[in-house]
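Appendix B, record 7
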Amino acid sequence: MSRKRHSTDQIIGKLRQADVGLGQGKSVEEACRALKITVQTGYRWRQKCGGMQPAMARHLKALRKENSRLKKVVVDRVLNVEILREGTSGKLVGLNGKPIVSGSADNTVKIWDSSSLATSK
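Structure tokens (predicted):
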């Protein structure tokens, strides 16, 4: 038997059909067998989507997707800050080997004059 992925709308529809079957006196096993799903899947779906309307489930899915995207943005920002901290902890030197900026992120940064920069002639 091949695996099939059901959409959230399909899951909610099948859960409603199972509720109708249970209301008619069927057991959980019989209701799940009529829907061609396992009992374990029925319980998992009930825990995940039980009592939801289709629009509410779509909204929840969109919120989870946005939350995932925002977490990735936060991770990128934190990495950028860490890279900048590491980059400013040492000395930056010009093409001629003389320091341009020295200092660290924790103390005052001193900027050297432009004569330390290499000039192209």
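Remarks on this record: The radius of gyration is 30 Å. Strands lie at 92-93, 99-102, 110-111.
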